[in-house]
Amino acid sequence: MATTQQVEKRTAKGGLLSRLRSYCIFVPLIYLYTGIMGSLSLLSSFFDRDGRVQHWFAVHWARMILKTAGIRVHIDGLEHIDPAQPAVYAANHLSALDIPVLYANLPVQFRILAKRELFSYPFLGWHLKRSGQIPIDQGDARASLRSLNHASASLRSGMPLVIFPEGGRSPKGQMRDFMGGAFYMAIKAQAPVVPIVLVGTYDLLPMNSFHLRPGRVDMIIGEPIPTMGMVPRQMDNLSTHVREVMLDMYESRTKFTGVIPSGARAEQQDVDTPTSVILSEATGGSGVEGPLSSENTSGNPAKVT
């Protein structure tokens, strides 16, 4: 098994020419693609009611990035995706490359749960709002519940969702604890969870780096995990089960141990949405679960378009 120091040493590799290629060619081209495709996508949003045109722009933006950087994606388990079945696609989060990899290779239109602060950024925030992505406020449990109910309504209307249940990118390239609240919406909508494991994106573009390298990424898609018959109080059990499945998939393709330092684990738990608050809000403060229906939602969540 590779130690954290060995992982960091391997990630730090890369000569001067590789860095110059990244800083002077790859990164400027990615910004150019983002500016052009993002502007066209924003313009299309004024007549694109269901978001299909905007998703098309996102898919081709992602493919341009991967092709320019010389990144090859090897996919296993594509047969586990049913385009006719709305699902929650849960992926590990290693790198800024994860989103282009998912957009370029998932054969369904989807929406992403993104941190609310991203929606306040100029241009990026406009695009997130206009394209129907769903903001999640990790620091406010009640606001988080409203977003999760909104996401559940989107699932019930037939729109798949992509989530990063770790809550953010991994600084060490290892899988962190999952946030249970992300699985509340899957149970609420009685939609299956499809585990997706990405291997290799961290080595090609680690967190807080602009040194992008060519190479191979493995995208492994697991069998759907059903949620039929589950109730919201089981969301932490579902979270634990999905993480165990994904960790097995992850370790089958990597030498990482999947174990993280206790300090990092505690930090992850600090930003988690308290389960008790979500459950209390979802059940009207009674602590007793009712039927999974619109009566348990906070208001009437708007349909995501």
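The record above closes out task 2.4. Task 2.5 opens with a second protein, given below.
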Amino acid sequence: MNPVLSRTLRSLQRNILAGVITIGPLFVTFLVFSFVLGTLAKVGMPVVQFLATVFDWAWLSDPWVQWLVGIVLTLAVLYGVGRLASEVIGSRIISLFETGLERLPFVAKIYTSVRQLIDTMMTKKETGQRVVLVDFPIEGHKSIGFLTRTMTDKTSGRLLAAVLLPNAINPTSAFLQILPIEKVVETDLSMEQAMSMLMTGGAVGPDSLVYSNPEIVMVEIETTFVSNGE
């Protein structure tokens, strides 16, 4: 190959790779914020459209304005509900509301399950919830998960773990895996670190983490030591 052409191709490859490394984290951050803001706008959009038809304001008919107002309205509602829940009277009202929901067929099951899931996800590590790694989707490929509870196999008495595996970028969807507890690798990641890695596709995260069970590592070291005849 022509030396000049070869140098040009190497330069192009090097610069394109540098561009990918530079733009990659920004692109992932953009995707995450687009998803979050789009969801907030979608939630508040019915109210915005109702206000636009009632008050007939020309500026409120602009799609971008509706998008921004939808986000602001949703955030305001979330803040108001959170502030209300932190007050004694507000917490009692929410408790009565939840009690009413629990009496509705089908709705009670869905609401209770989602509420328990959110409570578990927000629980600190000291109370039992842990960030773990499991082999998924195939053996040897680790995925971040949240160990939500343990249970016992009725047949063998083996201890099992229920692990929730959120999808990267879009952690609102997830897989639930039931697997032997020894297949679970407990990490030293906090909930915030795990969610940052998931939301950014791994672009944001710690420099090191626990990847293998210490017992398995010791067995591998001993096996290697014996096989080498030392």
